[in-house]
Design brief:
Strand content: under 5%
Order of helices and strands: HHHHHHHHH
Oligomer: single chain
Number of strands: 0
Low-confidence stretches: 43-48
Helix content: 55-70%
Largest sheet: none
Distance between the termini: 53 Å
Length: about 280
Amino acid sequence: MPYCVKCGVKLEDGVDKCPLCGTKVIIDEKIKPEKPFFPIEKDEKLESGMGKQRKAIFEVSLLLSIIAEAVIALSVNSSFVWFPLLSVFYAELAFIVAFTIARPTYFKIASWEIIMLMGFLVAFDYLMNGIMSWSYIACISLWIYWAIGVLPSILTKKKKFMFIELILSLLVFLVLLDYNDGILDWSLVVGFPVILCITILSLCFIGLLKLPSTPKPRMTDYIYIIFIIVCFSIGFGDFASTGYSHITWSRAFWFVGIGFLIYEIVVLFAKNIRRYFYSENRHE
């Protein structure tokens, strides 16, 4: 096992520089081993995602699901026999996908589960009503959950892109939700202005928190900021619904939001004053 000539930390085989101090590692070709001292053998079972144990569990679960489908089909004498059959099929399919997927991650498993749940709900709605009715709302709700709760898991290093994706997803969700009756009504008049208000307020608070003069916020500060954004957004939605002419039922939200905003400004000002005098006393 080689060591760094500068800081003495142990180095892994094949590294070009020290991970601690960054010093370049130079190894004589005469003594450089062709293979690592302790080679790591790749497990082909893990690479393929299906080992002997997983294969056995998969076969047993598949056999049990087939038996369950057969028992239900032969014992239930009803026109709604498709409901338990479809439910068992969905449960088995969800288990198979989650259990056999290669290199499982939250994004992969959640995405496949949401897709299968959408298919189950659409099939259930169509078999029950002959048309796609309530499953439309359920599917777009699952989609917005995927866009807000699943997709950001692979965009953690691209915060700007993730923020844009969240805003666009909310806009598309409002349009799809409003178009359920075949026309666009409230989404353009109220929904878009509310999302715009949320975006502007969020960007303002993000910029304020990044200022050097802003003290490190506490968890309660984040909660108050979210509460302020929610109150102002609800109030702005009421203002937009009246054609930007007057405010009706949202006065309480405006007063509460303004009160919390004043409180945060006073706290920020007091922290800056305290930090200023504390630094002055230290210099003296």
